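Box S2. Input/output pair 1.
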Amino acid sequence: MVTMELAQINNLLFTLIKSMSVIAVAAYLLGLETNLFNKLFNQRPKWQTKGFLVIFFGILSLSGTYLGIEIQGAYANIRAIGAVVAGLLGGPMVGILAGLIGGLHRFLLGGYTAFACALSTILAGLIGGIVYKYRPLNRISLREGFTVGVVVEVIEMTFVLIFSNPYSEALVLVETIALPMILSNALGIVLFIDILQKSFRKKEEAKARQAHKALKIANNSLCYLSEGLNHDSASETAKIILEITEVTAVAITNQEEVLAHCGAGEDHHQAGAGILTDATKLALDQGELNIVSTADEVGCPVDGCPLGSAVIVPLKQDQEVIGTLKLYKRTEQSITDVDIVLARGIGELLSTQLYLSRLKKEAQLTTEAELKALQAQIHPHFLFNSLNTIVSFCRTDPDQARKLLMRLSKFFRKTLTQNSKIVTLKQELDYMQDYMTIEKARYGDKLNIEIDIPDRLLDYKVPSFTLQPLVENAIKHGLAPQAQAGTVEIKAEIVDSNLIIEIIDDGVGIADNKVEDILEVGSGQDVGIGLSNVDQRLDKIYGNEYGVEIKSKLNKGTKVIITLPLKE
């Protein structure tokens, strides 16, 4: 007798597990590969989604009864799977309503366990919803899912014993169906959780791969797109996209023509051709992604063209559409969600790069204009001071005045023919020597110049007109006001990967309360044209971590320290 009961239980368990597998496979095919279930992992469902979950899992719960086995006037079933999973996905109300559909159907079938089974099915949905509040589906483990299934079925067996009459028949029924129903429903819930979680992870891994490809493309194409969208940059970028992705061909257009086409069909899809497809024109007009599903829509007039479908993404610059990116595939109707995600990601990153390149160019032009304006301030200032010196020699020493004019002419010839704003330290010292010749003639023995710069540093790059204004400032404001002779010393060394240049004078110095303000433009007579000018230019070129620092003591002298990045 015991052997027959065990055989019956085993047969019942096997049948329920087969039925449970049918439900799981059907659910997988119907919905678990859609975006709906993946979205449920990342956000709380909206009421439309909850409505769908109620209907879908309510029918699934109802089907669990039909897929069960009638035994002793009752049903051994897998009805609880639908109700519990509905709760796990949508919360208590979704679970209760899905359970209500399955439970009400079971109640209408009648039988002495009808009320107990209907009530337990509704409660199963509620339990799934309660678990949802504390353990979202992407965090619940398979062991926890199995435990929920066991608890739900133990409660159902308890309800059958409490609410069913006669009790003796209910007890025999529970002894027969308890183990098969507990195991099949618990395993079914585990299977659902496993399918959902794997489906979600699969989608997330695919998105991560596409994101990685998009970022790799953006990184590799950055050096080309920094010059904007043209035939050369489009061609190099299209080659990079084709190499990294698995598409058949890549094309990039501006608003009027194809800038580049790489891959299949490049023998007749060539740069410079006009835009053919309506989908591309629509993407340009509306700024929206478009799908080309057939060869006819691709619109190639050449017979045997291998391009069967494409996804077209607009390229934008500050919300303005400036072109398109097209990813082609050979087969018609072959553009997938993964292709769309990849194309959209690449398009957005390329658009961002183009926008940033434009901003960079605008900033560069603005900076260059400001630098020219700052540098232009120095030339007339130096010119007037030099002419005043030369004028003083015109009557007393005409030959010296002529030599100084030739030196001044040589100086300005160098500066006017020098196109680069960056020169070597040696060139900068040469410019300064021409200036010092004029100043030495003016001050005579009252002015001494000492240069202590190792030859190995002479090839390092510095902005032009960096030293001369500072030396001029040292002479005019440091040495000239004092009666005795003075010295200007120029030194250079490398400290912590920076080029440090010092202009040191032993002149009258600067009062402590003025040192901090001395770099402000216009602070003090003529000071803004020298010290602050150089400081501003260095900040524009290298950033605010580089520039001019002043250390001074009244009647002791001044040290001006220039910090530059090492550049050969």
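Box S3. Input/output pair 2.
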Amino acid sequence: MPRSALAALRQALQRQEISAYIVPSNDPHQSEYVPEYWKLREWLSGFTGSAGTLVITATEAQVWTDGRYFIQAEQELADGPFVLKKQQVPHAPEHIDWLVENLPAGAVVAADGKLFSVQQQRYIEKRFAQKGIEFDTQLDLLGPLWEERPALPLHPVFEQDTYFAGLSRAEKLQALRTEMQAQGCTQHLVCTLEDIAWLLNLRGSDVSYTPVFVAYLIVGLEEAQLFIHSAKVPADIYTQLQQDKVRVQLYTGIDGFCAELSARDTILIDPGSCSWHLYQMLVKVRIKEGEHLIRQQKAIKNHAEIYHFKSAMRKDSVALLRAFRWLEASLAAGEQPSEYDFAQKIAACRAEQADYVSESFPAIIGYQGNGAIIHYRPPQTGSARIKTEGILLVDCGAQYRDGTTDITRTIALSEPTAQQRLHFTLVLKGMIALSSAIFPKGTNGMQLDALARQALWQHALNYNHGTGHGVGAFLSVHEPPQGFASNATTSRGTCSLEPGHICSNEPGFYLPNEYGIRVENLILCVPHQESEYGQFLRFETLTLFPIDLKLVEMDLLTAAEKQWLNTYHATVLERLQDLLSTEELDWLKEKARISE
């Protein structure tokens, strides 16, 4: 049991004279979403959010997380020994500041170095050195305490056909090697699961909702080494990998291979994703630290990926239309389906579409006050019943072989109040402002993020999450580095937008215990025009689903905003009409009607 594990952990800290232990959320691959085997933080604390850090001392048991999870964490931690520590800046390591302020000089803080990147390790050591605190990363104290720990997954990998990928495995490897040579490197260590999957045109099911597999990859100028459990590689794929000079090695062999790399080689690593543990294995080889080469190539979608993304969006919209019609019919019949029921119905409607694989994250179906819990996940037992009153927030997405989707719609189930219409319209104005942006090449996500908040700011309102994240091509629904964020603690704030980047655009507003509002579309960065001031870019909206006009206060929209809304609804109708029955088309015409 976690309570006894916490006591046992503290006993271990006392025996080894350790003042504090840190448990992050990620795995050795710096993944946001991890296999069950690495959910150490969740197992010990009971907090299920995707982002958070535990700090355990003799007297403190803390969960540090950001504003997306404040309400959720308070609920999940209510009956346990852990207390919520609210991060003021998302992704900022404020728990390190707390340790520096509260531990004495000479204290020892411990952690498992496999779960910390080189970049994180250096930052922590530098901060601790200011106080004379030692950071010991050789101790995995939690693993031995988890008696029923799940095994590492052994699900087989499968091919992502070139038809969807746009480029073959060989073409991608050659493009990467060209970049490596330009950097003066003979080897490139790749730790991140999404980048390995994209480069090799392979997918897996080791992580729920994200089609990746647990592996490491080292790409040389002549051949590559894939470190993966051999049971996961089917015979036909093994043969294809051999033909492309990708040698399959044992997953656990990565340490030894790194240790034996020749001093004649220069290996490129990304200090933000390479673990401190693995970095320490690189004892002979020359190390070059630099940009994550595959991540940049993957982020800029090629023509085939963009084409298939648009296909996925059409299918996804049809599925959502059928799910929302089901909800309306159920409510009209006097039924009160639960939030969980509606999430299951959405998944079932999506499963009817071609090339559907899974949802891309657990659906957020937040009725009334639950909508204010930014990453709320309705439980199978005890989720709220949806009634013909108030507001419902629906944030969901799917994994299709031809693309990854993510959409949020907020709908009124009864006549909305003036306050609800005001808040919704301010959020919508922000979404439209970002969708309509024209900006010079080199503009980053932090600069554009302000556009989505401006209307809310004018009313002294705001929201505690980023405005958008990158989205993968049948990969992670949260794909770095691009996006929109209000600060520079994440690449979403610092990355410059490039043609081919696909991002979410999802401003929101939340009143705790009352309602949540969010409107989200996926947008594609495309060229706009060249001028004497250089190249200018804009966004093309990919998502195709109507916005609830009952919640829009039309008098608050400018003429340009009304035109955007009408044009968007006309586009939705045009691109979906040939996929719908007569009854479905009539429903869509009503929802996507043109407003004056």
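Caption for Box S3: The chain has 19 helices and 28 strands. The longest strand covers residues 521-531.
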